[in-house]
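Per your request, structure below.
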């Protein structure tokens, strides 16, 4: 009986390693593409400048701006790769703070309302929860999660766009935060893949120069470090609703 159980555990571990290796290969393939494309573009622009094809100051400025944009995109990709590697290797340091769930939602609203308004949309907040309920979070890291969810919502918004950030009691031990938008949503077939590293779906990847595609993968790692969960609410048939579940802490915790 012990032998059967051991064989089953070995088989499980072998399968996990195989999946991990497959995932790593896909990631490397995607990264090489994301690095090669802007590098080729930058080299092409530089060569044209060196050959004197681009001779007027206005043209040179245009080419330099394009090169700068490509290099900024590369810089963001490298930053996000470093961040994800750090989180996955458990080297990331978290600084924990106790905060009420309602004040967190208010902080998120205060921080991003002008960004959403400037993009031509509305940001609303809803708190259907007692203002004494407390969570233990790394403020900067959790802010990274909400910043990503809100910026994704803005990118896929229609003409009369609205984003609602909210919190409610999921059960006596957990708070459920939601970032809901009425934008274009995500194709049902893509939903299981949106938290994959460098997933190339229509909702998680827009202009690859602006977005590394790692945002939701990083968000997932951060939420799981909070002993929480992140997912897309598939029961909502308008726009996209992302859910973040965070444990409640008690005073004697």
């Amino acid at each position: 009986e012990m032998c059967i159980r051991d064989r089953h555990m070995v088989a499980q571990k072998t399968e996990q390693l195989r999946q991990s290796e497959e995932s790593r290969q896909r990631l490397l393939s995607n990264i090489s593409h994301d690095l090669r494309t802007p590098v080729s573009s930058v080299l092409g622009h530089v060569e044209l400048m060196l050959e004197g094809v681009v001779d007027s100051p206005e043209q040179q400025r245009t080419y330099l701006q394009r090169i700068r944009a490509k290099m900024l995109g590369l810089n963001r990709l490298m930053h996000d790769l470093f961040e994800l590697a750090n989180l996955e290797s458990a080297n990331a340091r978290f600084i924990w703070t106790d905060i009420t769930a309602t004040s967190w939602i208010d902080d998120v609203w205060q921080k991003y309302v002008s960004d959403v308004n400037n993009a031509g949309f509305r940001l609303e907040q809803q708190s259907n929860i007692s203002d004494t309920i407390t969570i233990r979070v790394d403020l900067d890291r959790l802010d990274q999660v909400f910043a990503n969810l809100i910026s994704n919502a803005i990118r896929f918004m229609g003409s009369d766009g609205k984003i609602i950030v909210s919190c409610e009691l999921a059960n006596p031990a957990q708070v459920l935060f939601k970032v809901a938008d009425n934008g274009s949503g995500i194709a049902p077939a893509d939903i299981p893949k949106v938290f994959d590293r460098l997933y190339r779906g229509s909702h998680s990847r827009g202009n690859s120069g602006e977005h590394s595609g790692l945002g939701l993968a990083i968000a997932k790692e951060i939420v799981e470090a909070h002993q929480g969960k992140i997912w897309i609410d598939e029961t909502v048939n308008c726009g996209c609703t992302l859910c973040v579940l965070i444990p409640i802490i008690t005073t004697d915790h």
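The longest strand covers residues 162-171.

Regards,
D.
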